[in-house]
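Budget justification aside, the reviewers requested a transparent look at the raw inputs and outputs of the sequence design task funded under Objective 1. We therefore reproduce one unedited record. The lines immediately below are the structure tokens for a 186-residue chain.
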């Protein structure tokens, strides 16, 4: 379990499926998390159950989906993940989504991502971490760059949302660029 003053990251449990189902069927969560990508949502309970079985069996040495809980009441508020972990190539891909709208813009997602970065750089011989978002998600772009991620490239007009096209923005963070969270601020 990874803990900060705002959030806790813990292993995914079967009972988290109900939260994922709600988040992935909320049009605003789908819009901001995945630019409306139908692979993210909406989803049926049956479809999510199949995906959840796979997520519960992920091998943490390669990938994991974690639940983000609010520290004050233990309520699940989102998810964080890492995938494509390659200790030989020294890289992994990250993601974070706050599914509970009441927690948007309050620092919970940033802290969850920072805890995950600390963990991955501490536990594995990684040189870099990477993530992406769409150019219309300015809140995510600000949060990622505040944590030290740098834009490394764009896939121009790679995301379509409501008839408009946006860039897919690729960001990376090197180990030497990371400033770990002080223990009293974690």
């Amino acid at each position: 379990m990874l803990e900060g003053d705002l959030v806790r990251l813990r292993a995914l449990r079967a009972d988290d499926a109900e939260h994922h189902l709600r988040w992935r069927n909320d049009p605003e969560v789908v819009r901001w998390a995945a630019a409306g990508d139908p692979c993210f949502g909406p989803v049926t309970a049956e479809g999510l159950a199949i995906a959840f079985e796979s997520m519960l069996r992920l091998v943490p040495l390669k990938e994991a989906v974690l639940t983000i809980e609010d520290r004050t009441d233990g309520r699940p508020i989102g998810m964080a993940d890492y995938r494509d972990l390659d200790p030989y190539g020294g890289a992994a891909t990250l993601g974070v989504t706050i599914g509970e709208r009441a927690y948007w813009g309050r620092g919970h997602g940033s802290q969850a991502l920072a805890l995950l970065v600390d963990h991955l750089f501490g536990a594995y011989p990684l040189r870099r971490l990477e993530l992406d978002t769409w150019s219309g998600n300015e809140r995510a772009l600000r949060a990622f760059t505040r944590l030290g991620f740098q834009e490394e490239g764009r896939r121009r007009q790679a995301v379509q949302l409501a008839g408009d096209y946006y860039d897919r923005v690729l960001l990376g963070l090197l180990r030497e660029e990371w400033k770990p969270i002080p223990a009293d601020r974690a």
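The first helix runs from residue 17 to 24. The longest strand covers residues 150-161. Computational costs for records of this kind are itemized in the attached budget.
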